[in-house]
Amino acid sequence: MNQAVLDARTARVLPWLVAIAFFMQTLDGTILNTALPAMARDLAEDPLRMQGVVIAYMLTVALLIPASGWVADRFGSRRIFFSAILLFTLGSLLCAMSTSFNQLVMSRVVQAIGGALMLPVGRLVILRAYPRSEFVRVMTFIALPGMVGPLIGPTLGGWLVEYASWHWIFLINLPVGLIGCIAAFRFMPDLKSAERMRFDTVGFLLFGGAMVLITIALEGLGEMQMPHARVLLLVAVGSACLAAYWLRAGHIDSPLFSPTLFHTRSFAVGIFGNLFARLGSGALPFLLPLLLQIALGYSPAQAGMSMIPLALGAMFIKPLAKPLIDRLGYRRILIGNTLLLGTLIASLATIDGQTPTVLLLAQLSLIGMVNSMQFTAMNTVTLVGLSNQNASSGNSLLSVVVQLSMSLGVASAGALLGGFTVPGANGAAVLEAFHLTFLCIGAMSMLAASLFFQLDSKQAMVARHIDTE
């Protein structure tokens, strides 16, 4: 991309524009979960099988992240950023107008196409438009709304559902999206690549096909109750696509993601650690509101407010993460923290109607703190060993894996919950299904600790001056 020369007004407005886009995306990612039971009743669906609405968004975002940089370079950052906000806003309107489950899922896909392009393109423009001396300051400013979104999203979603209707969790995006479109058209620099870059279309289709097929297979076990033979077929074809991608990537000049990235041990450990450790944390925002509302009888507003400690705990521990990692090293932090996180997720199986509210909130606050520490340590150790040449590609793959693992976490949680729930069950039987699901998700998360044993302790200790997420 060409380096932008910004006038004073654009330099002031541009961070606000990208920050608003980031806020819209993070708010949408958390506001929906509290509304799922109400949406299920309105659409005549089983609330325990609504994970497709969440997965459709996450999976679409994961699919399009690898293409976002190329699309911006090819067609210009202003056009793509404007189109991204427009698509996100249009998708929000279609979601609010949906009258069936399938229509809602398709509308979420439209919304996700816009969401997938907003933040990567905005971050790329910031990188190109500001000198490196200003980059950290601007990105810190942009990251703040990303912390506010998860804090107010569940509560706002619960209140809107209880005192208005679930449609408003999407309609509130319309005025913000309209302002964003106008601002993008006026203030977003139009940056393009001077050279025509070749895109690995075949690799994109193989890699994306693998993600879609494997996720649908897991979702099929839960929401769609797909026959096991069909699930096995989808997993086999998805695995074959993934194998074909990596075999092909090793023999072409510019693959979507180069296998040479995995020659860096810390990157390989970090990527696979992210994939498995995030299964539990990805499932929590989906499972907890359902548990509170369906099994424990909370109102949507009560369930939303109960999620606040997760975000507050994450914000509280953020300043302490780096000093703790500096003192103990990545290997010790990641092994111990992963085991603790899995234990805390499994401990949610003890929650029932007699659990004191104070104890529940303390439990969720602690999970939020441990989760935040996990994200910071995993992301940093994944990228620290990469060369400047591989940093961009490695960061893109990490972003894909983060979205994919959360999607797989929701799909796995839905499959487990569906498997443990007896048809026609209610009351204690539904609560037991949730308990068994939390135990399994916690155990799955703990298994990721075996991956972090593969980190070299000396190499892990030098990664002290990088901070992400």
UniProtKB/TrEMBL annotation:
What's a GO cellular component annotated to this UniProt protein? plasma membrane
How this chain sits in the membrane, per its record, is: Multi-pass membrane protein
**Which parts pass through the membrane?**
12-32, 52-72, 79-99, 105-126, 138-160, 166-187, 199-218, 230-247, 267-291, 303-321, 333-351, 357-385, 397-421, 433-455
Q: InterPro entries, alphabetically?
A: EmrB-like, MFS, MFS_dom, MFS_trans_sf
| UniProt-annotated location(s) | Cell membrane
Among its keywords, does the record have Cell membrane?
yes
Q: Tell me which PROSITE patterns the record gives.
A: MFS (PS50850)
* Key words of the record: Cell membrane, Membrane, Transmembrane, Transmembrane helix, Transport
Lineage, top-rank taxon, reads Bacteria
> Which residues does UniProt assign to the signal peptide?
none
Q: Where is the Major facilitator superfamily (MFS) profile domain?
A: 14-460
Its recorded name reads Drug resistance transporter, EmrB/QacA subfamily
| Source species of the chain | Stutzerimonas xanthomarina DSM 18231
Tell me the organism's taxonomic lineage: Bacteria, Pseudomonadati, Pseudomonadota, Gammaproteobacteria, Pseudomonadales
